[in-house]
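1st attempt posting a full record on here, be nice pls
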Amino acid sequence: MERFIGNIDAKTDIKGRVFIPAIFRKILQTAGEMHLVLRRDIFQDCLVLYPASVWNDELSELRSKLNKWDEEEQQVFRQFSLEAEILEMDASGRILIPKRYMLSAKITTDVRFVGLDHTIELWNREILEKTTLSSDTFKDSVKKYLGSK
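the predicted structure (as C-alpha cells):
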C-alpha cells in the first residue's frame, strides 16, 4: 500500500460524518481498503485511522510480543483492542466519527487529516499546531536522527 502523505482540512457535518480527503480515499480504494479501524492515539490527543489490513498487521505484531497468559500483558492487548472501532466508508467516501472519539480528540466541526505513513491521523487543528516542534528543535532532531555518524 502507498503511504499517506500530506495534511488536509475538512469539516464534519452535524452527525459527525466527514469526507476522507480524495487523495487518501484514492489510496484506500486502489488498495481495496473499504473497512477502516479508528482508535485514539496512545500519546497525543488525536485519532488514528488504520486501513483494515494495517490494523490487522499492527494487532498481530502486538499479540506476538505479548503473552496472553500474563495478566498485565493481556490487559495491554485488551485495552489496545478495546479502544478501537471498525468504520466503513459510505458510497460518497465519508466516515462517521463516533461522538466519544470526537470528544476525546476535542474535534468539533473542523478536522485536519494528516497522512502518517500507513495511517491517517485526525486532529483538532489548534491542538496539532501546539504539538509541532519549533524550527530549531526540528532541525536539531533531524540532524540527530538522520545525520551521519
